[in-house]
Specification:
This protein has 625 residues and is mainly alpha-helical. The chain is 65% helix and 4% strand. The strands form 3 sheets. It has a 3-stranded antiparallel β-sheet with strand order 1-4-3. A hairpin with a 2-residue loop joins strand 3 and strand 4. Helix 6 runs antiparallel to helix 7. The radius of gyration is 27 Å and the shape is elongated. The chain starts with a helix and ends in a 7-residue tail after the last strand.
Length: 625
């Protein structure tokens, strides 16, 4: 009981700073604001959507459901969402302690204090910040909750087998919990491999038939996850990084994760790929990976050489059903191998996303390092053991303070991604793009917004593609409308590169059968074009052609289109319709997207209209350029 109270209190205190935080411009807006079935739960229809949707490149029905529960409990107060994630993480810390205690007491090493300290080390480490504070990573904390329960059931079954008792119910329950965890995030697919490491190298007994169902499900889950990412467009690699480049990055990332565990300094989200340049800490990461690989491989080869003396195979009807070993438990090998196996699917060999590495990917693998810590402290005796526990306790206190400091960066996008640029360097186009949006949306600093957009474009246009219309609006409102035509041509060229000339022609002409991404390209292009028509010398004829072609109820959920339509109505002299559109734009809900034109909310309607029309001067013919 006391251990549970300490774990919950420590976990909550380290992260409680974020109780009143909002959401950030990564996947938070996509997950929490883009899906009506999530924010407005409608019973069976929402459940059907949760269990059938792979729109975001991932199948996670229980994670969607958890967001819906948050909306029902807290409404639009995202502080409640953060408290939910913190609470689940605190429970996970207790489950990690239970798992460590079960594993080490099962192999004859009763180590309650080291297990408690290793669990606190896992729970309050700054690498946990991204998983706990980043609401889009709810899937990490939620999936691990169910996977930890599955591990505990599996270990309990293994201990019953070693004691000569049956474990069918424990194994069946573990498999069911494994399947439930997969409904939160498919990266739990490594579950049977991690169970094997515990069975083979700590308990020294492997029941072969126990692994048939979980391994079969693991194979299915891996194939299903690959299909999810492809179906949701998550396998797109904007940098066209070759396989050998991805392998090099993955090898270095493994070492970087270990380095950040030992010395958690310069942590930041969304550290992007820099190919063909090498990422920061590449050489230290490569060296650490090499050392860890040498130790693991040499240890594995030694076991292979000694297999005839230590390993016994038990047969039944010509089928191997049980493997036992007379070698002593090797918790060090099991712990480091756990880390390597659990993090392997997230190392980036498969193409997905902009990031080269991310702290949230260590959430499950870090338990392997906690196994190492328990092994290290429990292998000592007397004063040395007491001293090692004191050192570990001091390390936990220092890590908790570092976590408190790290969570402070997540207060808003400006703080978070300014810090990311300090850590990852000015080449991080993703951070520049997010800062450009923030500068436009909150202080409405057009000069900084355009500057950040230009820095993102200098790295790669894909960093700006999702918000290109904001870039065009910022150019127009900052008196640089003469540059917009060239940027429109650049956008068209990039779409043609991505989908091909024939499909691009279908996008511009609005043919039937356009994919979701192609519809997005079309909407983005014409919103950019409409913004251009109404900036500088206004072309009302061209603007009218676009509005008549694309106007409709669906566009009134898009704040950018609402803003542009309001401006168009003002230019046409229809102030009543412009006023209606402005009311929709300033409404607190009912719209999707990061850009909500929040800077307008402190202004009167007359001030807004004057500001919108400030730099417009009617002149025909712009659309002919």
């Amino acid at each position: 009981m006391l251990a549970g109270i300490l774990l919950v209190a420590g976990s909550c205190c380290a992260f409680l700073r974020c109780w009143d935080y909002g959401i950030v411009d990564l996947d938070d807006y996509i997950y929490l604001l883009y899906h009506d079935q999530v924010s407005s739960f409608s019973g069976f229809a929402s459940l059907r959507y949760f269990f059938t949707s792979v729109e975001e490149g991932i199948w996670m029905p229980l994670t969607w459901l958890s967001y819906s529960i948050d909306y029902m409990l807290f409404g639009d107060w995202f502080g409640g969402f953060h408290l939910h994630s913190i609470l689940v993480h605190a429970v996970n810390a207790c489950l990690v302690f239970w798992l460590l205690l079960s594993v080490f007491s099962g192999c004859g090493r009763a180590t309650a204090v080291p297990c408690l300290l290793a669990s606190i080390f896992w729970a309050v480490h700054p690498l946990r910040c991204e998983s706990v504070v980043f609401l889009a990573s709810r899937k990490d904390v939620l999936s691990f909750f169910w996977e930890l329960l599955a591990f505990i059931c599996w270990v309990s079954g293994t201990r019953r087998n070693v004691a000569g008792r049956g474990a069918i119910l424990h194994t069946a329950l573990a498999i069911v919990l494994f399947a439930v965890a997969a409904m939160c995030k498919p990266s739990v697919m490594t579950f049977p491999l991690l169970c094997f490491l515990i069975d083979a190298f700590i308990f020294r007994e492997v029941r072969v038939l126990r692994y048939v169902a979980p391994v079969a499900f693991m194979v299915f889950l891996g194939a299903f996850a690959a299909w999810q990412q492809k179906a949701g467009g998550a396998t797109f690699d904007p940098f066209s990084q070759p396989l050998y480049g991805r392998v090099l990055g993955a090898v270095a990332a493994f070492g970087i994760y270990l380095r950040n565990t030992v010395w958690p300094q310069w942590l930041a989200p969304q550290c992007v790929k820099t190919w063909p340049a090498l990422p920061r800490f590449f050489w230290p990461g490569l060296a650490i990976t090499g050392a860890a690989a040498w130790w693991l491989v040499s240890r594995a080869l030694r076991y292979w050489d000694e297999r005839n003396e230590t390993v016994k195979v038990h047969w039944r009807s010509g089928v191997p059903v049980r493997l036992t070993s007379s070698a002593p438990p090797d918790c060090a090998f099991a712990g480091l191998a756990w880390f390597a196996v659990a993090i392997a699917p997230m190392l980036g060999i498969a193409s997905f996303g902009y990031h080269s590495f991310a702290d949230r990917f260590t959430y499950i693998p870090a338990v392997g390092l906690s196994i190492l810590l328990v092994h290290w402290t429990s292998s000592l005796s007397g004063r040395l053991r007491h001293l090692s526990c004191a050192v570990l306790l001091a390390a936990c206190a220092a890590l908790a303070l570092a976590t408190w400091r790290q969570t402070g960066y997540w207060r808003d996008d400006d703080t978070l991604f300014s810090h990311t640029l300090e850590v990852d360097g000015q080449h991080n186009g993703c951070a520049h793009g997010i800062l450009a949006n923030w500068s436009f949306e909150f202080p409405h600093d057009l000069e900084r917004s355009v500057d950040e957009f230009e820095k993102a474009l200098a790295r790669d246009i894909n960093y700006v593609m999702p918000c290109y219309n904001i870039y065009v609006i910022a150019l127009g409102e900052s008196g640089q409308s003469d540059r917009i035509y060239g940027q429109l041509r650049r956008y068209q060229a990039e779409v043609e590169r991505q989908v091909g000339p024939d499909r691009a022609r279908a996008v511009w002409e609005g043919e039937d059968g356009l994919s979701k991404s192609e519809l997005f390209y079309r909407s983005m292009y014409f919103s950019c074009r409409l913004a251009w028509m109404m900036s500088g010398k206004v072309d009302l004829k061209g603007a009218e052609a676009i509005v008549s072609q694309l106007n409709g109820p669906a566009l009134e959920k898009d704040p950018v289109w609402l803003y542009l339509l309001m401006k168009y109505r003002l230019l046409m002299g229809d102030e009543a319709e412009a006023s209606r559109l402005l009311d929709l734009l300033l409404a607190p809900s009912g719209k999707v997207g990061y850009i909500q034109f929040r800077y307008l909310r402190g202004m009167s309607k007359e001030e807004i209209f004057r500001s919108v029309l400030g730099n417009a001067a009617k002149a025909p013919g712009k659309g002919d350029e």
